[in-house]
Amino acid sequence: MMAIAGTKSGHQFMFLSDAADSCAAPYGELLCAPxxxxxxxxxxxxxxxxxxxxxxxxxxxxxxxxxxxxxLHPSSxxxxxxSDRLQEKSLFRQLGMGTTDFFPVDSxxxxxxxxxxxxAGQAAILKTRTQGYxxxxxxxxNQPAQIADAWEQVGQVPCILEAKVKFSREVxxxxxxxxxxxxxxxxxxxxxxxxxxxxxxxxRVDDPLQQQAEAMARRLMEHLDYVGVLALELFHVGxxxxxxxxxxxxxxxxxxxxxxxxxxxxxxxxxxVCGLPLGDTAVSQSVAMVNLIGTVPSEKAIxxxxxxxxxxxxxxxxxxxxxGHITLVDxxxxxxxxxxxxxxxxxxxxxxxxxxxxxxxxxxNS
Length: 366
Known about the structure:
The protein is α+β, with helices and mostly antiparallel strands. The protein has helices at residues 2-7, 38-47, 60-67, 76-82, 85-94, 108-118, 147-153, 210-224, 257-260, 265-273, 299-303, 336-349, 353-357; strands at 14-17, 29-32, 102-105, 124-128, 138-141, 159-163, 169-177, 183-185, 188-194, 197-204, 228-237, 240-247, 287-293, 308-312, 322-329.
């Protein structure tokens, strides 16, 4: 999606991926090689004016080597923090941001002690410090009898134990910063996950917590001298926002910006890393995104829904895999009731019937 946006602006792309069937391949030259292949890295650096990445589970050593040869954004510092949950949570605390309680855990003994420290009745989530996304590398612990199994489940590797947060909703802030320090912010996205995977995002224009989320993003980006799009995943707890994690890249919960915002997150990421002025992030209509998990439903059925746009990623079907998304906008001619009805129809279509019936709030954008 970044390359699709960039080719419209005249950029040329080369991709380094270890997947021969990379869905980006039609939009540039694909170097199919292991990420730590130094010859491939050198070829990428020789081609590029600037390098970026779209996945934080890349070895930092790879990014640091490329960074030494060619401008790279976001920096290896940002990647090293975002790819380690302990470093990440510690930075949030350092910058005065709210987080859930947490403990580093390197053994079953420490895990037992940490869970006990939370106190009776407090559930927790054990997460690997690295290599976790979409619910992978996690185990829920509700009672002491589950501790040993949870430790086995995550592979007995360095972890972080977090107290489960009682939140009213999950939201995310998508922001961008240029090398000159210019920053832009999108409206908060309200997100719904199931089985650790994002299912639905709805843009919330004029959300009462917008300014609080922007202040957090600003603080982080200034501290890291960040360049590019940054996503903050947040819990709404009472009147506050707790930071869950950051993603140093364009983010799934911001995919609605392609049709829903004046400038998409992909355009603004490229503008930022290329040192160009950032684009307008205004949203003038209700907009939502429905993820397609595992398989793509009938394209004909989707086409029959007004103002629904299908994005297919070119990936093979697989349970739990994000293979595409649908953006739905309200063109202001149909009204919010029709927008809500169409969104519920889409959720039913992709197998999220329970979610569709539980979301009466989709009828409004405020």
